[in-house]
Amino acid sequence: MNEILIQSQESAERIDALLARSVEGLTRSAAQRLLEQGRVTKDGLPIKKNYKTALGETYRVSLPEPENSELAPQDLKLDVIYEDDDLIVVNKPRGMVVHPAPGHPDGTLVNALLYHCGDSLSGVGGERRPGIVHRIDKDTSGLIIAAKNDFAHLALSAQLSDHSLARTYEAVVHGRFKEDSGTVDAPIGRHPTDRKRMAVTQKNSRNAVTHWQVLSRYPAHTHIQCNLETGRTHQIRVHMAHIGHPLLGDLVYGHKKPEKGLEGQCLHARKLRFLHPRTGAPVELECPLPDWFLEILTKLGPEE
User: Fold this and answer.
1) Residues carrying an active site annotation
2) What is the DSSP letter of 35?
3) In angstroms, rounded to a whole number, what is the distance separating the alpha carbons of residues 148 and 171?
4) 167 forms bridges with which residues in the sheet?
5) Regarding beta strands 267-275 and 141-147, do their DSSP bridges make them parallel or antiparallel, or are they unpaired?
6) Are strands 87-92 and 67-68 parallel, antiparallel or unpaired?
7) pLDDT along the chain (304 residues), means of 10
8) pTM for the complete prediction?
9) Could you give the domains of the chain?
10) Which residues are bridge partners to 90 per DSSP?
């Protein structure tokens, strides 16, 4: 039996929502089954499905022994930036999906990591598979970290929750920023009418903070750096669109026609900073801008 501890960072959140958000690969329905089976306790007593959390409470979760994943390992090319016995950091190419999903049953980063890492993989969520700590969109390139074992997975997930795992992105947006830097502090939740999109909204949302800084200006675009204080779905894309500077190539939140030969948003996960889960030593990693991003910069006109 695999037991983990989860601490609540919010009040009045449904316990099944907290579990699904805190345990990689655990769905709301799977979390509810754990609650029904009495596998989630507080102070030694089982918690009911409708329990609402309190800030700072700690819950003990007993997960069933992991089974071997049914996903197929695939020998796909990986640009490995860092690897040891506990974790692996990969420079993901744009166009590669992270998790298998309807429409993308294979050819994903998870399939590639299953082949590359072999049997030494995280069992969090009930299957032996890579413990993806954070996610980036299919058309976003750059650094993504995965744990090889439960210890590293839980430690890195905790750093993601307390914001000590820092991520820096670079993007090209429409329009010219007048200021050299700024912060977008606006909650993000599901779009009220389009469930496939996210939006800045007060309803059923969570706080989201993005810090941005201008790297260079062009006649009609700006090359910026973004540091995430939180990690909401599509956060940079939603926040930049919200302030009137949607990402170049973003057909969901920006202009509706492809531009500059782009298929998808011009966004690259450039840097990662975290504490090694085993040693506590700081780890700082960086990958260069890919060729496709550099080509876009040359198409924007003279740098100002």
Assistant:
1) 137
2) H
3) 30
4) 272
5) parallel
6) unpaired
7) 79 88 75 91 91 91 66 92 95 92 83 85 59 89 92 86 92 96 96 89 91 97 96 94 97 90 93 96 97 96 88
8) 0.77
9) 2-63 (3.10.290.10), 67-162 (3.30.2350.10), 167-269+294-299 (3.30.2350.10)
10) 80, 144
Q: Are 299 and 103 in contact (CB under 8 A)?
A: no
Q: To which residue do tokens 């692996």 refer? A: 88
Can you state the percent helix, strand and coil of the chain, rounding each to 5?
20, 30, 50
